[in-house]
């Protein structure tokens, strides 16, 4: 089954304790992206990647890191989490055509993070 | 920068009736994609319908259809024969067709409730 998976689905942590949220897709997609969802703000992009070893900042990258060592994986790293990073996080992926990124992005199930 | 506005935070509809969710956007681009995503209580992001700006014909997917008014920069979603399972948060989203980053720009969302 074609899908985007995220782990963990739920996480409670404390301020300053490094954590990683994994994202994996089995559709051979080049483009991957992380969004965070906050009440009243919709979803906002954190980081994206056009292909292996190619990553760039989105709209709200502060406090986050990413890496893209393999095509299928795009982990989100919080080196020193703070309470304002409490949010619902989504990973998404898409094909990239010659003309650019394909129109439809596929979303993972979401990771709910609480930073105390 | 593109912006997406969903001015109604909540709406309610009687089961089997029709409801229209509003969305407006601002862009200087002539070609782009517009989407409606559904987010049920499970928090999964589900693509409902997609519209390419260069197509004059409004997109339709079963009970879901859009009213795309390019000059007015309006993109409303009509749900016909509403069902209890339609209760969810709905997000309108904009995406540029090309470029290094094809992020989705989301509105703040609207919560739809369906009365039995």
Unreliable parts of chain A: none
Mean pLDDT of chain B: 93
DSSP strand content of chain B: over 45%
Gap between N and C termini of chain B, in Å?
Answer: 41 Å
> Which class best fits the helix and strand makeup of chain B?
mainly beta
Main beta sheet strand tally, sense and closure of chain B:
6 strands, mixed
- Molecular shape of chain B: globular
Largest sheet of chain A: 7 strands, mixed
Class by SSE composition of chain A = mainly beta
Instruction: List the secondary-structure elements of chain A in sequence, H or E.
Output: EEEEEEEEEEEEE
Radius of gyration of chain B: 14 Å
- Would you report the number of β strands of chain A? 13
Mean pLDDT of chain A: 93
- Coarse shape of chain A: globular
Largest interface: A-B, 28 and 24 residues
Contiguous uncertain segments of 5+ residues of chain B: none
> Total helix count of chain A?
0
Helical proportion of chain A, percent range: under 10%
Quaternary structure type? heterodimer
- Our measurement of the CA-to-CA distance between the termini of chain A, rounded to an integer number of angstroms, reads 36 Å
Q: How large is the radius of gyration of chain A?
A: 14 Å
Give a nutshell description of this structure.
Chain A is mainly β and 116 residues long. Chain A is built from no helices and 13 strands.
Describe the overall structure.
The complex is a heterodimer of chains A (116) and B (116). Helices cover 0% and strands 53% of the residues of chain A. By secondary structure, chain A is mainly β. In chain A, strands 2, 4, 5, 6, 9, 12 and 13 form a 7-stranded mixed β-sheet that branches. Chain A has a 4-stranded antiparallel β-sheet with strand order 1-3-8-7, with no helix packed on it. Chain A is globular. Helices cover 0% and strands 50% of the residues of chain B. In chain B, the strands form 3 sheets. In chain B, strands 2, 5, 6, 10, 11 and 12 form a 6-stranded mixed β-sheet that branches. Chain B has a 4-stranded antiparallel β-sheet with strand order 3-9-8-7, with no helix packed on it. In chain B, a hairpin with a 2-residue loop joins strand 7 and strand 8 (64-69). Chain A binds chain B through residues 31, 33, 35, 40-45, 48, 50, 56, 58-59, 88, 90, 92, 94, 99-101, 103-105, 107, 109-110, 112, and chain B through 4, 33, 42-45, 47, 50, 52, 91, 93, 95, 97-104, 106-109.
């Amino acid at each position: 089954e074609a899908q985007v998976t995220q782990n963990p689905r739920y996480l409670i942590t404390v301020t300053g304790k490094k954590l990683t949220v994994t994202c994996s897709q089995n559709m051979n997609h080049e483009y991957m992206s992380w969004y965070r969802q906050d009440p009243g703000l919709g979803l906002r992009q954190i980081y994206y990647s056009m292909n292996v070893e190619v990553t760039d900042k989105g709209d709200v990258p502060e406090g986050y890191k990413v890496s893209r060592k393999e095509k299928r994986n795009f982990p989100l790293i919080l080196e020193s989490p703070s309470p304002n990073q409490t949010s619902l996080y989504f990973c998404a992926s898409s094909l990239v055509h010659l003309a650019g990124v394909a129109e439809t992005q596929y979303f993972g199930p979401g990771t709910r993070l609480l930073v105390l | 920068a593109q912006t997406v506005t969903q001015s109604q935070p909540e709406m309610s509809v009687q089961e089997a009736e029709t409801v229209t969710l509003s969305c407006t956007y601002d862009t200087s681009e002539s070609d782009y994609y517009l989407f409606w995503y559904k987010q049920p209580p499970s928090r999964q992001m589900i693509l409902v319908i997609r519209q390419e700006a260069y197509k004059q014909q409004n997109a339709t997917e079963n009970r879901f259809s859009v009213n795309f008014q390019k000059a007015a920069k309006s993109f409303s979603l009509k749900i016909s024969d509403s069902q209890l399972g339609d209760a969810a948060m709905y997000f309108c989203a904009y995406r540029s067709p090309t470029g290094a980053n094809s992020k989705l720009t989301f509105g703040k969302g609207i919560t739809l409730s369906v009365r039995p």
